[in-house]
Design goal:
With 444 residues, this protein is mostly helical. The protein is built from 13 helices and no strands.
Length: 444
Amino acid sequence: MGLLEDSVIIVVSQLFFFVGGWIFFVKQLFKDYEVHHRLVQLIFSITFALSCTLFELIIFEILGVLDPSSRYIHWLIVLTMILFMTIVCTPFYIGYFIISNFGMIGGKIVQRVMSFCIWLLYLYLFWRVGDPFPIISPRHGTFSMEQAISRIGVVGVTVMALLSGFGAVNYPYTSMALFIRPVKRSDIQGVEKKLLQTLDMVLVKKRRLAVTKRDNVLSNPGFWNMFPGSKNVVNTLLEEIVSLVELSRHLFLEVAELRTMEERVEWSKSWRGKYFNFLGYFFSLYCIWKIFICTVNIVLDRVGRVDPVTRSLEICVHWMGLEIDVRFWSQHVSFILVGCIVLTSIRGLLLTLTKFFYAISSSKSSNIIVLILAQIMAMYFVSSVLLMRMNMPPEYRLQVTEVLGDLEFNFYHRWFDVIFLVSALSSILFLFLAHKQTPTAHMT
């Protein structure tokens, strides 16, 4: 195929990804908001389409789809566009919406000038990020593509490692029946009874407060506040009401958590729960293995030279005596492996972005949050390409390496191991402490 036909394939696929990002924006992120800012929606959808195209080009590299020269051209175009979105467009509009949404003084011109100043500050900090790290060969120019990719990689790999470390620990914890505390119906009813009693006490105290104020007004019209005895009674009742309201709030949260735990117990008994329980054991072993391997890599300062697929096939050939065409099967198995990584990465990131958006967004800050998530998404996917390169056989990673430039790829794998280890161990400690503070501990 020629350049024109290959370009048509890329453009059509990008339109498909763009529509997918647009639908996700409307149906998921902004389904509870009536006002959609078209520019924010456009930036998010373009970033999503470019990010998915990076993964598409990796799959095309393995399958040999498109002409090599046209693939190289589209690699450069997509990388240039996603760098522009990450370094110029998205940060500028994040600053613009911060200034315009929070009532800064000045007209449109003043707001744009201030947004430009914020963008210059971001650009300075972005460029300073890479100074402490050995991420690039010193012979590259200051404003080369390698300089930009290397700095995006530092931030993106850090985000990936943090999410991966927490996910590797949190998934077994939330899916395995081993960590589900048994909850009796009597326990829930006991806490509910305490909650109802507390609410009744609040009602009684409020009635007594109203009666006390009325009696004082009737007995001393206009002057009841001057008597210390009456004022002390009112203050005491107010303090008791505040304490009881706070207690009722804690009891309500405890009831909600106990009901959630009861639902988890029932869910774990279903076929779906048993399936996820099995997956939880599998991922717990993976988590232990990954923590061990990361520790070994950090201590020995090593990075894998051969992709996992080729290494596994070579073991089958040399040690098990199987007659396998390593080149043929490495292509197909690598395609399946990379495809799984692509799908799980996109799905996992979108789910995480949705939860994060609902947790902190409001009608006033939603546009800013979406742009920040788009920025993180672009960095995440560029970094995924940097790390996914190692999962590709050498003959398929040549053009990817050529496009990304002369980067210190080994640094990113070591940095991922360090952050993953810190994130996983911190998550284990956090979940251990949280598990000890479950409501059942307070019902005795």
